[in-house]
Amino acid sequence: MPDNIACRIAGLDWDSIRLSLDEHGYAKLPPMLESSQCEELIGGYGEEQLYRSTINMARYRFGLGEYKYYRAPLPDVIREMREAFYPPLADIANSWLKRLDKETLYPDSLSGFLEQCRREEQTRPTPLILKYEAGGYNCLHQDVYGSVFFPFQVVFALNQREQDYTGGEFLLVEQRPRAQSRGHVLTLERGEGLIFPTTHRPVSGSRGYYKTTLRHGVSTVTTGTRYSLGLVFHDAK
Ligand SMILES: O=C(O)CCC(=O)C(=O)O
Ligand SMILES: [Fe+2]
Description:
metal ion binding, DUF2086, 2OG-Fe(II) oxygenase, Jelly Rolls, metal-binding
């Protein structure tokens, strides 16, 4: 694997990622983070100076577990991934807007998009690390922190399922208009990533595209401890 994460991201098969996003709404990525990078991120969990806030999920009835939002400046690997994932995803996001007859909205660089966030007073970084112990889970939700939001997020598994923990599958539920919801269970090996929609996606129907609503979460971790890294592109108010 080349050691530069930005090159690794640029070198992904973006045609097949686009096809997968268009067809299923999500795209699984090959291993992106090396074990040492996963270990370093997990190892930083106790270093409070890295984070701007810690959320006890039970307190807000978000689930059972804990997560921490990174403080600026973000750790290099997170900043580089956020910058490198943004442009190809913005292109796909704009094509989705077109399908729904909305004007093209997402600038082609992360800095341009963060400027849009800043204008709405959304200046606090949102990449986060999550930790769930046995019994932990994450209720179905959407991560929107203001009027500006990016339509894709990326999540990475930081440790190994069936080895470090069991259960704790990633859940994606799609609510179709006037129809029942459909659920997807996605499993990620350590270092692997998943791109998924923040709130909606266009689905092709008999009279053009319509919009479905998506929520994501994590099923109960049955044993061990599960760590994940969430890459959210919009900053928070
Ligand atoms: O722990 C997970 O896999 C879910 C993470 C999540 O909710 C997010 O990245 O927004
Ligand atoms: Fe989330």
